[in-house]
């Protein structure tokens, strides 16, 4: 019989709409202003911390809706944002610097919905408010570090091969090795070419000296830049986690830039301090053979550097770096046995092995801990980017008493606050190359709320206009289309809430509004085709059947081409473009389901298989 659906198709439609509604439902319950308290690594958020925070708020007369401790984080909910802002200052002061206190919005989703993993839509920066940074990686500094490492590697390799050289220096975007004899240079060239196939070697002779110049090939240059960008993205994500930001966005833009969006953050100074800091550590041996007086006068040995400690005293260190902060996997601040601040360091396996091997052979020699930081200057590079100044300071000099392993400590730090900040930066990781903030935008929470309200009003007005038109023009069939339209919106919001990492932005709302019109387009095609069949003398049941059947190919063609466009937008776009593309893709698939399957189920249920002389269309 025409226009009769089997039971499983009705159950499928009901199941899809029910699941979508359940996952969209949390958006009806709103969010509570909240305070999120987390401890820096090594500091646990205990029930005593919960008690202390509650007592602090009670004494100030601030009403708390709830306070819960889970996953080493404390979440305190308030009735309004005024209490939230007052509570943040009081709790942060009471708990001290060992804890990170951040403003948040906690979903007021009932526990039974949370049990199935349902939660509200994640709102983007333009809807929630916060800070937007566009950062540019200093690729020249990243390449400079690689060249310095080339110099160190060449020195070590040539010494091990007993190939005598006059000097190794970084020069002209590469490394130059100078020999006194051509035969030795040729032996070194053969050896180094085999050991470093990604480098391009050339001969540079000058008078009685024979030079060997090495530069990175195109593929190696590309790998270095890609590594610097990806590592910086990873490290910035770690630092964002240390800030305690909910639902942050960190992604690349182009070949050298990183976009960072921190919803809910209004303290831009603190965010910039942590995200842009390039502090790291280096461990180097003290050059005991150097004359400090001569070094202070400018006569520094060729394989050494002159630095100064925190008291301004000169310290001559060997250029060879034993270990850098890249191998640090954990760092926590604390006090030593004399109640002085210290930082406890844990290394990864390669770093621990390197430190153990080096200290085993150098017991009794002084080793310095060097704090390195890159600070932006007023000078500009040729491409217009800001130059960085490299500041180095010797934190402490300690004699190696025994073989060190993967865990040790550094002392000589000025204050406990400084130790905590250094531990945070080292724990999050040292940036592979300095970054500069080339664009900064702050969106206030009131503006974000206004964007939400405006977007919702646009969607509501658009739906009302469509619903009114369809009801007037297609009568009862128009009501069927309107029901499908409502189901379409529910499915979009439900799927967006289910998909991990999906974020609703203002362009995303525009995508929903667009799919509302596209969903009605499909119904218009079907209904007009049914009218044509009726005018052609077909029976009611034949008209319904042929209307859906003949309109299917047209609807599919139109939606598939739009879907391809949305996929391309998602693949090549960034930021707002991706947000628009995501909602457009979900909306197209939902509209095809509701227009073709959903309305057909309703039409078949109401009018299918019945002896009718006319249709209310």
Automatic annotation (TrEMBL):
The chain crosses the membrane at residues 7-25, 455-474, 479-499, 505-530, 551-573, 579-607. Residues 229-288 form the Protein translocase subunit SecDF P1 domain. Residues 307-433 form the SecDF P1 head subdomain domain. Keywords: Cell membrane, Membrane, Protein transport, Translocation, Transmembrane, Transmembrane helix, Transport. Residues 435-597 form the Protein export membrane protein SecD/SecF C-terminal domain. Pfam families: Sec_GG, SecD-TM1, SecD_1st, SecD_SecF_C, SecDF_P1_head. One of its GO terms (cellular component) is plasma membrane. It is found in: Cell membrane. One of its GO terms (biological process) is intracellular protein transmembrane transport. One of its GO terms (molecular function) is protein-transporting ATPase activity. It is a multi-pass membrane protein. InterPro entries: SecD, SecD-TM, SecD/SecF_arch_bac, SecD/SecF_CS, SecD_1st, SecD_SecF_C, SecD_SecF_C_bact, SecDF_P1_head. Residues 2-103 form the SecD export protein N-terminal TM domain. Forms a complex with SecF. Part of the essential Sec protein translocation apparatus which comprises SecA, SecYEG and auxiliary proteins SecDF-YajC and YidC. Part of the Sec protein translocase complex. Interacts with the SecYEG preprotein conducting channel. SecDF uses the proton motive force (PMF) to complete protein translocation after the ATP-dependent function of SecA. PANTHER family: PROTEIN TRANSLOCASE SUBUNIT SECD (PTHR30081:SF1), PROTEIN-EXPORT MEMBRANE PROTEIN SEC (PTHR30081). HAMAP family: SecD_B (MF_01463_B). Belongs to the SecD/SecF family. SecD subfamily. This is Protein translocase subunit SecD. It comes from Zobellella denitrificans.
